[in-house]
Structure formats: structure tokens, C-alpha cells
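Dear colleagues,

As part of the handover before I leave the project, I'm documenting each prediction I ran so the next person doesn't have to rerun anything. This entry is a single chain, and its sequence is reproduced below.
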Amino acid sequence: MYIKHLWKASIDENAWQQAKRMTLGATLGWCIASMFDLPYGAFYGVYPLVLLGFIPTRTNAKITIEFLASTVFGLMASGFLVAKLSPHPIIMLLCFTFFSWLCFKCMVQGLFIFGASSVCILTSIVHLASYDATSWNSLFYAQITASIISVIVSYLAFLLFPDKGKKLPPPSPPHLTRIQLNHRVWLGTICCCMQFIVFQSLSLSDSFGAQIATILVLMSLRRDMIWISAQKRLLGVFTSCCFVMLIQLIVNNLSHIWLITLIFYIIGMLIFCTEHAREGIPGKGFPGTTTIAILYGSLTPMNNQIGESMYRAISITLAVCLMLLCVNMTHYFLNQFKSTRWV
């Protein structure tokens, strides 16, 4: 009882409920994927975390529609780019730029969930589907089923662990001028396109975590906030990778026992979900939860989780640092034009 009291001492009841919702959602998603041996199991663990942790309000019809609509848009756009335009890289880049611009435009005009989820799905599916070894049917099936299951799981999590007190509404976003909005949209669009060029030009099929991390840091939409977000993300990824490596050393050759893996998955999720709920905004905790979901989502009896954790930590650090350099250069470039100058 004392340990439980100490664990909850620095968070209120609503935050503790959120931590339990996130843990339940990510665990149910991972269990479904692992029990039925579904492809791309990371999707099933990550998407419930997005709905239950990244979005500050209760899952409702508006959130559900935006989230599922983003899945449809992301799959249609990525399928069109890869299937029809792969032989024409210049046209493919122009179309990708337009889709990215549309996503960031939605983010700054009140459709943040749709825009943010769409650009994540678009970039990740294009990245994965561009390799010959990828099964499109498996990839698209995993994306659709993971999205639907995540919505169902999020409703169930709120039903079992509702908020216990009155929750303060999220603060209203600051009023921005048209020029500031243009700066945000084009900052995200240009950096997203630079990332697209790099991952399409190099053979980085094992760097899905680095690819999606560089997109997630752009969700802050401002250079100074992107830098803060990136620093916290790197710390969260590093600590969660250390956790996974420590667990692998503890269980040694027992990771093939499903129940043992489940127990440590729940423990890790609860630790980092609680940290996320304590912070109140995406900081160190949220990237920690997604890292565990991705690493365990790709777990097989032959996996070397220590090696994969080290590779993930190093690749994400390098990718995010390069993205920060791109953000800085793009910020100064946009400030050279009156229509996009940040004041």
C-alpha cells in the first residue's frame, strides 16, 4: 500500500486513470496482435496509445471519425504514390508535397487529429510499401484492423477507467496570424518532404522507428517547441530502450514464454504511461510507451531485443538530430519571405 501511495503521490486521480487506460489499451492491442500472429504488430500497440494519450479528451464520435478518416486518406494517398508514381520520382515528390501540405493545413485549421494521423500514416506506409519484400495486403490489412481495434479498445478503456473528477478543458490555442499559420504549414511540409527524400533514397527498411520519430517531432509545428519536443523524445526513447534491454537480460532465454513477456510489457507500459500522465503533455513518457509498443510488437522468439533496442536508440538519435538541423534551416529560409516570416 505504501509503494502504491508513493507511486501515485505526484499525480491526481484523473491522471492515474489515464495511465491505466493507456496501459490497458496498449496491452489489449498487443495481446490481440501476438495471440493471432497478426502482421505489423506494432500498429496494434501504438494506435491505442495515440487515442488514449496523445488526445486530451474522451474518445467520441468526432475523434473516431477523424481517426478512421485519416486511415482511409493515408492508405489511399500512399497507395496511389507507391503503386502509380514510383516510376516517376519527380511527380511522386510533387504529389507527396501536396498531400503533406494538406495534412499540415488541416492540423492548423482545427482538424489536428485528422492531419497528424494522416501524415504519420502516409509517411510510414509509403516508407514500408516502397520495399519489394513488403506485402501490400498484409500492410494495408494491419493498418485498417489496427485502427478499428484501437477505437474499440479506447472506448472500452474509458468505460473501465473513467475520469473520477471534473477535468479542466485543454487551453485554447493562441491566436495566430495568417503569416504565422503559413510558416507552420510550410515548416512541417518542407521538413516532411526532406525526410521523404532521405528515406526513399537510402535503404533503411529496418528504421521504421527513426522514420516515424522524425515525423512526430514535427507535430509541435514551431521551431522552438520542436526542439523541446525532440529533446524529451530522445530521453524517453533512451530510457525505454534501456528498460527493454534490462528486461531481456533478466528473462534471458525465456522471452518466448508469452505470459512472462506480457507481465514485463504491462510493467513497462504502466511506468511510462504514468510518466506521460504526470507530465500532462507529450514529453518523455509518451515516446517511451511507443518505443516499448514497437519493440514488443516486432518480438519473435528469435529476436535479439538488446541489439534491436540499441539500434533503435542510435538510429532515432541520429535521425532526430538531422531533422532538427533541417527544421533550423527551413525556419531561416521561410523567414526570408514576407508571406511566411515568423514574427
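DSSP finds 13 helices and no strands in the chain. The longest helix spans residues 305-334.

All the best with the project,
I.
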